[in-house]
Design brief:
This is Outer membrane protein beta-barrel domain-containing protein. Helices cover about 5% and strands about 45% of the residues. With about 270 residues, the chain is mainly β. The chain has a 12-stranded antiparallel β-barrel with strand order 1-2-3-4-5-6-8-9-10-11-12-13. A hairpin with a 7-residue loop joins strand 4 and strand 5.
Length: about 270
């Protein structure tokens, strides 16, 4: 559920920022997504990036830092936005760095439904991310693939590929500074609910050290959500999202996720 950036950069980040960065790494089947925080990558912007910047509903160009393990459980009141019954999903994974200036990798196992026996339906995901050197603001590009080795109900989906770009500018309003997360991307299974090529885009903002919110276009409709860091529980977080928030496709549903991370596991 949880969200991130370059492995080397993440290792230099203070623990608070590392937790911020990871707590939205997602249980993708239920609709939560990664988000990211940044360490002091820009002069005088460190305070801004202590805020809980988040982006839900689309895949950003950031990955979990090297050695970080994450897990998430999500619940939705309408499975796939179509079926009236509620359902849940689970995701777990880890980040691995290949060296400074190279790419960082994220591996995720997704359990897509808990309606029947646990683990009887799911797939694997892999994403590679690279930070662009010399960019005016922290900028990342990524290439990812989903539905690898799919089983159970997910078996009908072919593997899909997405490419994305994510930037982290800072919005200054008077004496206040707010971190932004901007993502633009596309893939071969994005629009028509994962059946056709399409584009996605979104913007997120960190409003405080505890709370951030975002709006994203997922290729078919818009998702609106927020992320909450729990005071005193830096390894835990909550996200809530309204998918198809404007009910354009009659698929409006709520997704609530609980996220956990552990840094420097290996």
């Amino acid at each position: 559920m949880p969200k991130l950036f370059s492995i080397r950069t993440a290792r230099r980040a203070p623990p608070l920022l590392l937790g911020l960065a990871a707590l939205s790494l997602a249980a993708a089947p239920a609709g939560a997504q990664e988000s990211a925080g940044l360490p002091a990558a820009i002069p005088d912007a460190a305070d801004a990036f202590r805020k809980n910047v988040t982006l839900l509903g689309i895949p950003p160009a950031t990955v979990a830092p090297d050695g970080l393990v994450f897990a998430a459980a999500s619940w939705t009141d309408r499975r796939d936005g179509l079926h009236p019954q509620d359902d849940a999903s689970v995701a777990a994974g880890f980040g691995m760095g290949l060296g400074e200036g190279l790419v960082d990798l994220q591996f995720t196992a997704n359990i897509t439904s808990l309606e029947d026996d646990f683990g009887d339906s799911g797939y694997l995901s892999v994403k590679a991310s690279h930070r662009l050197a010399g960019a005016a603001v922290p900028t990342f590009v990524a290439l990812g693939t989903d539905f690898l080795g799919a089983w159970g109900d997910a078996e009908d989906r072919d593997p899909g590929v997405t490419a994305s770009l994510t930037m982290f500018p800072v919005l200054r309003l008077g004496a206040q500074a707010f971190p932004l997360m901007l993502t633009l991307g596309g893939g071969d299974a994005v629009s028509d609910f994962g059946e056709e090529e399409g584009l996605f885009a979104g913007i997120g903002i960190g409003l405080s050290e505890s709370f951030g919110t975002s709006l994203a276009y997922n290729g078919d409709n818009f998702d609106f959500g927020g992320s909450l860091r729990l005071p005193g529980l830096r390894n835990w977080g909550l996200t809530a999202m309204m998918r198809d928030v404007f009910d354009e496709d009659d698929r409006q549903r709520v997704v609530v996720s609980v996220n956990w991370i552990a840094a420097d596991v290996f």
